[in-house]
Structure formats: C-alpha cells, structure tokens
Amino acid sequence: MVSCLDEKDDSPLFEAKPAGRERSCRRLAIGSTILGILLILVYRWTHIPTGGKLERFVWIGMFISEIWFGFYYVLTQACCWNPLYYSTFKDRLSHRFEKELPAIDIFVCTADSIMEPPILVVNTILSAMAMDYPQQKLAIFLSDDGASKLMFYGLLEAIEFSKQWIPFCKEFSIQQRSPSAYFSTISVENAGLMDTNNDEITAIRKMYKEMEERIQNAENKNNTHPNHLLSLLQRKGFVDWKFVSSNPNDHRTVLQILNDGRELEQVDDQGSSLPTVVYLAREKSPNHFHNFKAGALNALIRVSSGITNAPIILTLDCDMTVNNSEIAREALCILMDKTGDDVGYVQFPQNFRNTTKNNIYGDFIDISSKFDLQGMNALGGPLYIGTGCFFRRCSIIGKKYVGDSSDLLQWRKEGGIVNTDERISMLEQKSRVYASCTYEQNTLWGKEMGVKYGVIVEDALTGLSIQCNGWKSVWLSPERKGLMGIAPITLTQILVQRKRWSEGWFQIFLSRYNPFLYGNGKIGILLQMAYSSYYLWAPFSVVFLFYVLLSSFALLKGVAAFPQYLVDTIWLCDELGLLDSFDGAIVTGETLIGYWNIQRGWIIMRVVSFLFGFIDTILIKLGITNSAFVVTVKTTDEYVLERYEKEVMDFSPSPPMLNILGIFVTIELFCFIGVIVKMMMMRCTTIILERLFLQFVMNGMMIAVNLPIYNALFFRRDGGSISFSVTLNSLIFAMFSCLLVMFLQ
Ligand SMILES: O=c1ccn([C@@H]2O[C@H](COP(=O)(O)OP(=O)(O)O[C@H]3O[C@H](CO)[C@@H](O)[C@H](O)[C@H]3O)[C@@H](O)[C@H]2O)c(=O)[nH]1
Ligand SMILES: [Mn+2]
C-alpha cells in the first residue's frame, strides 16, 4: 500500500470501476431474452385463432399481456446494462482534509412513539453521534411527528449515555455503533476484545441496560425522571411542552437545542465535545396539511440552517443505525473529490439486521439493491431511498446546479458555527418560526425547494428532481454494510409498506413528474426507463392478475392459452417471475428456499399491495380519496417474533386486504382441481394435457409456490393464521367465479 505521505495532493479520493466480463454476460443475456420475447410476440400475432370467440379472446388477452411484460422487461433491464462500482480511499481523505472535514447535519425522523419505541430511536441517535468523525462537527436533529414527551426524555438519556459511549467506541474501534446492536453481537464479533477488556464492556453494558430500563419504566408508568437528569430538565425546562396537549396533531412547535456541540458545556468522559443535539416537534394544527415525512424533513432543513447550517445532510429513518463507523468518510470521499462536484447525493443501501435465513417473506430489496440501484450508477445515479443518504445541502434545497467546484469548502467556513453572540434560547426562538404551520404558505417549499410534496414516496420524487436539476448521484456499497434497519416481520406490515411504495411511485408516473416527460432532456433515457420500472409496479399487478387468471380459467374451460411448444415454457416462467432474478438470488446469497420464497413474495405483492396501490392511485386521481403515509410498525409481541424466528409466515391480524389473496389462490386451486376431475371423468388425460400442458404446469406451480398460504387459509389454527372470515369469503367468491366461468358460453 502506498503511504499517505507519498500521495500527490490531487490523487483521486474514489474510483468508479465498470464491470468488465460481467457486463458482457449480462448484455448477452438481455439481448437473447429480448430476441425470445420478439419471437413469441410474432408467433402470437401470426397465429391468432380463427375459430371460436372464446379462443380468440383468450389468445388476444394473453397477447396483450405479453406485450406489456415484454415492454416492462426492457424497462427493468436498463439498470443492468452498465454496472458501475464505486470504491473509496479514506486514507487519502484524512491525509488531505482531516482538519477541514465539513460539518454534517444528521436528520432522524420519527412519527409515533408506540410504533417506533423511543429506545429504538435512542439507539439510532447514539449510533450517529458516535460515528467516526470529529464529534463537534456533527449535529443530530430529531424530528418527532409524534410530539412525544417520552421521546424527548429518551433523547436526554441518549446525550447522557453518549458521554461514555462515544469514548468507548473510539477506544475499542467498534464498528457497530448502536449499543443495542453491539451488545447483541458482541460475543461473536469481539470474542478477543471480550477477554482483555471484560470489565469495561461489562460496565458499559450495565449502564446501557439501566438506561433502557429507565426509558421503559417511563413508558410504563409515566414515571418521574431520574435524579441525574433532573437538573438538566430543570435548566432546559419543558417550556414548550406546557403548550403541548396530548394530541400530537395539534400543538405549537417544540424546539430545543439540548446540546450545543461548540459550547463545550457538555463533554464526554475524555473531555471531548459532544455532537450538537436538537429536538424538534414541528407545529401541527388540524387546519393544515402536514405532508408527512416530507414536511418534517423540510422543517428540519430550515431549522438546521438557522442553527448549524452544515453543508452536508444525512437523512436517517428512526430505525437505521450506523453499522460501519466510517460511512461519513466514505461519502465524503465522493463529495469532496474534485471529480465529484456534480454529485448531489450519495446513497447507501438499506440493509436489515433482522433478516431470517431463508428470507421468509421473499423480500426482493436486496436483489434490487445489488442489481437495479447499483446498476443506475452509470446512468446518472440511483433514486434517493429515504434513509442512509448524504446530500449536499444545496442539492436538496434545490438551488439549480451551477458547477462551482469550490462550493463545499466555502460552506464549510460558513456552516457548523453558531454565532456565539446568540444565546441558545434566542437561537431557538429564531428557529422556531421555521417549523410553524404557516411558514411554507406562498413559498416554493415542497415544490421547487426542499423535499417534494404531493406523493407519499417523497424520497423517490425528491431524488428524481435533484437529478433533473443537473446533479448526479452515487450508490455506494462499502464492504462493511453502512446502515442497518428493521425489516417488517409480519405479512401485513410488508403489504402495507409495499402498497405505499407502489402507490406513491405510480402517482409520480401519472403526475407531471413522469420521468419520460419531466426528465426529458435532463436525464438519460436509460435512467428514465430504470426509474419507470419501479414507478410501474402498481399497474403491473393488474396485467399479472389478468394473465394468470385468464390462463387458469381457460384451463378450466379447456381453452388453450398457449401454443404447444416448449419454448413458451421458458417465456412463461420468466413472466411469472419463476425464473425471475435467479442469478440475482444466487449472487445475493439467498438459499434455495429463499429463492422459492422470493417468487411467492412477488406474487403476493402483485396480488395485494400493488393492486391496492393501483386502485388507490386511481381513486386519488378521481378525487375520491387521499393518500396517507402509514408508518411501518417497528415493535412486536413475543409470539409474532417467535413465528418470525421460526420462519413461519405470519398473516395476523388478517386485514381485509387479505381477502383478495385468499380469493386468488383459491381460484387457482379450484381450477386445478376442476381440470383434474374433468380428466378423470372424461378419461382423456393425454389430450387435455397435450393441448393445455403449459397452463396446467403454470397453475400447478402457482399452487406449489403458495402452499404456505393454503396452509394458513385452511389448516393452521395458531395466532398467525388467516382468519375464518377471510377463508369463508375466499371459498365463496372463488366458487362463484369458477361456476360463472364454467357456464360461460
Ligand atoms: O408523517 C410521518 C410519517 C413517517 N415519518 C418517518 O418516516 C420514516 C420512514 O417511515 P417507515 O414507516 O419506516 O416507512 P418505510 O416504508 O420503512 O420507509 C421507506 O419508505 C419511505 C417512503 O415511503 C421513506 O420515507 C423511508 O425513508 C424509506 O425507508 C420513519 O422514521 C417515520 O418515523 C415521519 O417522520 N412522519
Ligand atoms: Mn422503515
């Protein structure tokens, strides 16, 4: 390795490597698949049946769906065309810039102290405070849309604990800077460390446990606060809290600078300064619409600009803890390099610390990350995915890109310094207006400035508009995972989350921000395609349902939906996602069962989440409903957790939207049974099988892949199964529609 001192001062801080051989292989695969698709479409076109009406209808229906699938396939492959991998040289960064590293404002959003318990958020905050970075240059801004006193109290506890935690992390070079995550992995990861420093670890662990207990007690009994915090509480006072009723949606702004990193009033055990910590619950009133997380982020952008105004902003969800202590340095290698001047944000992947071995809900996020989002690097860069993203303040505020390379150093001088003349309370006073309900009236906030309003996936829309303002973005995936969050652990949680995503994305597609229109001339066509492949999840569901049901009903009727050629098997499998992402699954280290689960995951998402996302989007367009940001639950009861750990699918609490899944799988089952009965009665197995082979296989596969759903519908009796009313509805509706089809002429 070259020593730092030998480096010339303009040696690059990062490197972007195209994938050589891999790229050729992918292109070959894409090319041949597209060729296959075209051949199939030509075959469909030239072989439209001339006979019965029903035969024609089925054939043309399948044909139209396949045109869509083919089109969609092309969209998705834009990402795979030219993978580009970034790597960084952190030693060069510290050699050259250690003293001038820019200040960073870290935004953590939370919304509900029941669904997102304070101890979880406290861990996120501690992990960010303890990052490997000059602590006096860090500022944590917590936005609490739940306006919870408990959360506020948790934040005070976090500051106290950080005085021991930060020096501890530094002394032992701990990577995992969330205490709870660290203590749960410690025995495995740091066995050696354990031996020699047992005492210190035991002591800090005990301290953490006590804090955890105090926070939990406060939750349970609304307890009084422990002595060592009383003085702090008295001094800071719950001034603002006096005006907060129990209603989190109707209160004035609560803004408190709990620690000012530059004042050195609070230091850690080693005498070093702590990061600045600010609590914000923006003003809420029933007369104003608050734009969910987007509104919270914009309030944070403004409030922080009055306090620290750091040139770099990191956004974190309340469950995203720092897992790689050097992420800030990783990101700055890109943002501070002179060739990175046009990079508006650096996005880290979302990783989860609670995944199970076989990916029980078949979540495809990992595969998306490794392929699609990674693949966007060469096209201009990935979407912003809401968490784990380092922005230049000016890119997110929305100043048009001017290409001035000195920008970052300039801000560094301005940012990160509180005017010492201003007392903290004056500063609070001044900044409070930025978080008021009315501040944004008649401004460009949410439109041209800051995080964009109007859709419930503020992240995707904001990323797109930053791109369209001329910035690039980078997907950075260091070997040691940057951040770790909590993945949904029941089917309902994941269904609700994916419905929100598919709905928000489709809203973007139908809005004036449609990437093909809005991005026209601003971002490349491949990037427009890549983004659209996500934005079209919702309508995909409709075609998917139509295709699968048409083929199954046709099977029941004895009408052929496919020609009798083997080549279609491959095509068919591809479309059903049965071969979908096999290479992806292998590369991301999925087990075979995990791969199988991913196939089910896609089916369930399409049948339920994306379908409801689609319907809701249409209703919103028609002005019939409004969308809401339903927060993903991040707590759990012990039975749910037990099922999750055993990898048993959990359908509780069986929400009404499960009806559609039940009906779908039951129809599939009835069609399959129907055709078998028919074969036995008519003794014409071979004829039926010959003509309808592919449909038969497809139907059979659907049933095989969905076995856990049948189990929950008809056999399971535990708390995680599907409720009886859903089972009943499924049977009735499926029976009714199969009978209807059978008597159709
Ligand atoms: O009115 C709200 C609603 C949500 N949140 C916060 O937003 C974050 C994300 O919410 P979560 O329920 O965890 O949603 P996910 O689906 O897991 O989030 C993904 O998708 C969201 C967009 O739908 C992005 O905002 C997130 O960053 C991204 O991780 C959480 O910290 C919430 O506390 C708010 O601050 N205010
Ligand atoms: Mn989340």
Automatic annotation (TrEMBL):
The active site is at residues 145, 459. UDP-alpha-D-glucose binds at residues 116, 145. Residues 194-221 form a coiled coil. Its main location: membrane. GO terms for molecular function: cellulose synthase (UDP-forming) activity; cellulose synthase activity. Keywords: Cell wall biogenesis/degradation, Coiled coil, Glycosyltransferase, Membrane, Transferase, Transmembrane, Transmembrane helix. GO terms for biological process: cell wall organization; cellulose biosynthetic process; plant-type primary cell wall biogenesis. The keyword Manganese does not apply. GO terms for cellular component: endomembrane system; plasma membrane. It is a multi-pass membrane protein. The chain crosses the membrane at residues 28-45, 57-75, 534-556, 603-624, 657-680, 692-710, 722-744. Mn(2+) binds at residues 293, 317. It is found in: Endomembrane system. It holds the Pfam family Cellulose_synt. The keyword Ion transport does not apply. This is Cellulose synthase-like CSLE, family GT2. It comes from Zostera marina (Eelgrass).
